[in-house]
Design a protein that fits this description.
By secondary structure, this protein is an all-beta fold. It is built from no helices and ten strands. The protein has a six-stranded mixed β-sheet, with no helix packed on it. A four-stranded antiparallel β-sheet has the order 1-3-8-7, with no helix packed on it. The radius of gyration is 13 Å and the shape is globular.
């Protein structure tokens, strides 16, 4: 059974930082490209970042480049999203997903507000 458990969200002031984690199980994590998505109220879910199976390649949505960094620890079956210089428009529920695996976690809420 596939499980994806996101954590690390919270309330942060504009310009602040958060580090999200996603613990995965039930599939071959080390062979899977992992992706971070987010969904803001009233908006569609959007792709934020992706990281290759070995972690050597990452891609980001343009508005996140230079602010967000995806990484992974295959020994811990965990993927991370370091978010810096957060803006109010980054407020959303953040989810992780494995490419080709039709399963989602519960997400973690990120709220950027003063």
């Amino acid at each position: 059974q596939v499980q994806l458990v996101e954590s690390g969200g919270g309330l942060v002031q504009p310009g602040g930082s958060l580090r999200l984690s996603c613990a995965a199980s039930g599939f071959t994590f080390s062979s899977s490209t992992m992706r971070w998505y987010r969904q803001a109220p009233g908006k569609e879910r959007e792709l934020v970042a992706a990281i290759s199976s070995a972690g050597g390649s990452t891609t980001y949505k343009d508005s996140m480049k230079g602010r967000f960094t995806a990484s992974r620890d295959n020994a811990k079956n965990t993927v991370y999203l370091q978010m810096n210089s957060l803006k109010p428009e980054d407020t959303a529920v953040y989810y992780c997903n494995a490419l080709g695996v039709p399963s989602w976690g519960q997400g973690t809420q990120v709220t950027v507000s003063s």
